Amino acid sequence: MSDTRTPPAARPTTDAPALPGALRIGAARAWLETREFFREKETVFFTFSLPALILVLFSLIFDGGTGDINPTAFFLPGLIAMGLMSVSFQNLGISIAYERTSGVLRRLRGTPMPPAAYFIGKTFLVFVLALGQLALLFLIATVFYGVTLPDDAAAWLTFAWVMVLGTITCALLGMAISSVARSVNSASGIVVGPFLILQFVSGIFVPISELPDWVVNVASAFPLKWMAQGMRAALYPDGMEAMEPSGAYDLPLVAGMLGLWCVVGFVLCLLTFRWKTARDG
Fold it and tell me: 0.90 cut: is pTM over it?
């Protein structure tokens, strides 16, 4: 007699649940990075206060005016460029060096987290800080010093692409230079030193028209000068382009130089970024 019993159904095989994609994990990293940053009250204060404080000081010192333009409006574009480089190049250069030397990067690399998620989180944080700093500078300039912002879309379009391209460029360079530092203490000198020099030669504190030609030529090799020039093109009233070394804002050249530095920063990140210190192997 044959066995007519129906064999038990085979249990369906299920694969292990797929890990979330890099974008989803990157969004989680972005939220974590932002919360951790704003928990450090001292860091938040100094990050946002320095460009705003300099703007107030310059407005008081040059209260008599700088030509035909409000002194606050005169220095505002350069200080915006300085602030963007501060929250991207300086912030990432020092913070990533700290995470590397303290072992945070090594532990993160040992998790299933896609490496791209880490960089997404850092980039998001940079843009949050950039927008916060812009809001503070615009608030001070318009409410307390009567600066009139542009009212045409073309100026704001210029402002937007200079801000985005310049911030990404400086963020990439900050990630790359973080690999040069052997310790947190050395990171401060390696990052802050060049950044401070660039501020003086790029027309941030001293009008670009008053700098010697050789100084302008040196500054032209680096992105901060072009960021400040693009911001002046967006925020200055008509006729101010005569104060530029070439007599024009040269926006195609601004875009080209920032784009070139963006590519250079990306390549440097690929070649130099490390998840561990040299002594960790």
Answer: no
